[in-house]
């Protein structure tokens, strides 16, 4: 067996299952989960129709690179969304079966394990980054997010000797779980570091279309274009239809950016990556070509956050994130650890949240997820409100018990 498998940590949801082992939740409350970031809004009917009308494509082997039509649709979306020249659909765009698999694969493709490589990632983080680094034979280096910077990462804290060994850096903007976005000045700093040390920047942007202000989050390709980096050197961006279009089961996303990296990445994926099925490609073209459903989806999230955040703010330290569909709440005032908070909330009110420490590692003397919980506001408005009201009741009871 690959010895690097022994370095992997249990996945957060497996740890949550173990935490809840033996707990019988309050039967008077119907179960509501805010634990998993799985969109619950309905899939748009026009996407379903495009998928169904293309089932004849199941009779054909798809190519790894996808159809010209799909890559052109993705390139056109990137142009419209980020006000950049359309990336070359032939060399700078590659469809993938969801961003998760692609984010894992990029590390396997770019890491040279022969010279003690480092993969830099945010902390807290999406666990795929860490697993990808370990299985590629690299050492993860965690850059803690800073509450004082609205949970932006403190890149200035990384020592030069770490940057010198870095071969890949994962950036997540908007962040999971914090919702923090990367500024143009942060991108300028990261591009300069990438140029100096030669590492690849992998920007995970699958939450980019869920935001709460009128100004959409800055994308990495957009930042590069503004800063005169028109070839997107050493930069690859990952995005997905799962959150944008409410199709997590379709497993459709893309990678875009540096043509030289994508050429090698396509070679890697020709051997290891599953090609996207023709019906999914047809449905993806329809989804990337329409914005009306995205506006409606975003409006639903804005309504939920506007109603739920003030309720929870009365009993815990929580603020509206820059973007994304998570609330990243500090529950220190309850007097419970994040694990005990999640376990008791599940037992007494049948609401599931994820302990923040499960999404981070102890690094530089702290675990930046400790005493926090992640709440995914993915359900419809009424269910989300009910969950919030139960959490408020739970926190109020804890306060009474402590006085």
CATH-defined superfamily of the largest domain = Type I PLP-dependent aspartate aminotransferase-like (Major domain)
Give the C-level CATH assignment of the largest domain. Alpha Beta
Estimate percent helicity. Answer: 40-55%
Q: Based on the coordinates given, report the CATH architecture of the largest domain.
A: 3-Layer(aba) Sandwich
Order of helices and strands: HEHHEHEHEEHEHEHEHEHHHEHEEEH
Shape: globular
CATH topology of the largest domain: Aspartate Aminotransferase, domain 2
- Overall number of domains: 2
Strand content: 5-15%
Number of strands: 13
How is the biggest beta sheet arranged?
8 strands, mixed
Rg over alpha carbons: 21 Å
Low-confidence stretches: none
- How many helices? The count is 14
Give the strand order, joined by hyphens, for the main sheet: 2-9-8-7-6-3-4-5
Termini, distance in Å?
54 Å
